[in-house]
Amino acid sequence: MLMEDLNNFKREYVFLLQSCIKISLDEQQSIDALQVKLLGSRIHKKRVIDLLNEARAIDPTLPTFESLTLFGNYLDIFGFQRSFADEELALHYICTQLYALYLECTSAHLQHRIAWKRYLYNCDYQLCNKSEIRMLIRTGVPGDLRPTIWKLLIHQQIADIKKKFGKYYFRDLCNTRGSLDETEYRDNHQKQITLDLLRTLPGNIHFMSPTCKGIQQLEQVLRAFCLHNPIIGYCQGMNFIAGTAMLFL
Fold first, then answer.
1. Where do the TM regions start and end (predicted)?
2. Mean pLDDT of the chain
3. Is the pLDDT at 114 greater than 80, yes or no?
4. Domain 167-248 class in CATH
5. Confidence band (pLDDT; 50, 70, 90) for 30?
6. 195 CA to centre of own chain
């Protein structure tokens, strides 16, 4: 009980810090320029770094303060590069990461995760009880279970399509050449998709250049959807939905 109270105090502390953001106008500029400052950063910097070093013993994927400020080479678990020229912003980012970690350590979160694991085990990963799955989803999917849950939900949603067209339907769409639908895709959608690919997640190492695996896979997904549903085809914004899903899947 004492450890949980201590964890809650830490969580509330970093939440308070990450909430202490003020936006002030820089009067030295000829135009209005917004500056973001973390209030009391000098006082709290050492405390936050100490908490971070302690937390890294639990989760080594957390950044170091130096990797965010001096080296600028920190990649988060999704592949986004994080670097800050302003120490206050680096401390703010660290506080958000610490808050998420402390939240995962609460008894409520642990019980919720156990409920998810129990449900998956009891239904043999088939997501069969719709009322229970709705209740669990409404209370949130634990981060480490999201790839599993999202895949199960997607496969359940497209079960009829796979039954109709076969389990290799996506591969077949990717390899389609010379059909009327493929010609329509090339004439009406390919140019816009090509333009949008590198705009999707430019700060992510998996989507930074045309040779990145994420870009190539994203193009396949968008192309396959156009061929599967030529009436809708490609609409701008689909790249962000698909790209975000690919970060988890």
1. none
2. 84
3. yes
4. mainly alpha
5. very low
6. 23
